[in-house]
Design a protein that fits this description.
InterPro entries: NDK-like_dom, NDK-like_dom_sf, Nucleoside_diP_kinase, Nucleoside_diP_kinase_AS. It holds the Pfam family NDK. By secondary structure, the protein is of the alpha+beta class. The protein has a single domain, classed as Alpha-Beta Plaits. The protein is 38% helix and 20% strand. Strands 2-3-1-4 form a four-stranded antiparallel sheet. The two termini are 22 Å apart. Bound molecules: adenosine-5'-diphosphate (ADP).
């Protein structure tokens, strides 16, 4: 077991559907602790950094437009093995393939944009989590 902090983004679909509290409650019920939380609008520059691994994919422009539909809520969440456990709670990228009981299975889009409108981003490893927390939070904003 390792005490870790992960970076979660409540995507614009979560914000517009009023799902932030419901999903946050799932994280808190697991015993994870909020260390930082804020709402922000993602600039082109921030999105290019955050999604550099998909920047050359044909769907990237749609992802960028989607992520700029509204502000997002960024969360720094701490807990034992929180990085992998939050990824498990989310389920796979494609909400249609996500099991009932997972966050994407319960709340993600089940129609056209199932792979994109999938409620939350969460860091996929220790290095990514450290880089992403630095990207989204300034010094003094994580407690
Ligand atoms: P994850 O967010 O599950 O780690 P990726 O890092 O592979 O997945 O992709 C980043 C984001 O890009 C996804 O969460 C999703 O919003 C979007 N995305 C990924 N694959 C597709 C796709 N084939 N079509 C549309 N959007 C996609």
């Amino acid at each position: 077991m390792a005490l870790e902090t992960t970076l979660i983004l409540f995507k614009p679909d979560a914000v517009s559907k009023g799902l932030v509290g419901t999903v946050l409650n799932r994280f808190e019920k697991e015993g994870f602790k909020i260390r930082g939380m804020k709402m922000l609008y993602l600039s082109d520059e921030l999105l290019a950094d955050h999604y550099s691994h998909i920047a050359d994919k044909p769907f990237f422009p749609s992802v960028r437009d989607f992520m700029q539909e509204s502000p997002v809520v960024a969360l720094a969440l701490e807990g034992e093995d929180v990085i992998a456990r939050v990824r498990d709670l989310l389920g796979p990228t494609d909400s249609k393939a996500a099991a009932a009981g997972t966050i994407r299975g319960d709340f993600g889009d089940k129609e056209g944009d199932a792979k994109m409108r999938n409620v939350c981003h969460a860091s996929d490893g220790v290095e990514a989590a450290a880089a992403e927390i630095k990207r989204f939070f300034k010094e003094g904003e994580v407690f």
